[in-house]
Amino acid sequence: MHGGVDGISKKIRSTFDRGISTSDLDKRQMIYGENHYTEKPARSFWAFVWDALQDLILIILMVCAVFSAVVSLLLEGWPKGMYDGLGIILSILLVVMVTAISDYRQSLQFKAPDNEKKKIFIHVTRNGSRQKISIYE
């Protein structure tokens, strides 16, 4: 349909022995766009905290902690009644923070090797000579 490899080469104004002219690079980039993809933004620490709070067991414990605090306040009064409920709530917050910190650090550790994978160089022909360039160029 396009005349084979030679036909496509003519349509994109390239040859096998000369490659692409460096003077055309800006024009080609404007026509075809950059060789980049949009990355998802990194998740914030608070997103990991929110995820940790979504655990069903922790939600049940939070409801029990509030119920315990209310019942203890009614039965024992202000200072003594808050100890059990407040202890459970602090334990839940500790578990949530440890989980969120662990998950956040793990996500940062996966990001470093991912950045290394992006440093890929290839050989191309530009103005008749072989060059080693980044895949994004």
Automatic annotation (TrEMBL):
One of its GO terms (cellular component) is plasma membrane. Keywords: Magnesium, Membrane, Transmembrane, Transmembrane helix. GO terms for molecular function: P-type calcium transporter activity. InterPro entries: ATPase_P-typ_cation-transptr_N, ATPase_P-typ_TM_dom_sf. Pfam families: Cation_ATPase_N (PF00690). The chain crosses the membrane at residues 56-75, 81-101. Residues 1-73 form the Cation-transporting P-type ATPase N-terminal domain. PANTHER family: CALCIUM-TRANSPORTING ATPASE, CATION TRANSPORTING ATPASE. This is Cation-transporting P-type ATPase N-terminal domain-containing protein. The lineage of its organism: Eukaryota, Viridiplantae, Streptophyta, Embryophyta, Tracheophyta.
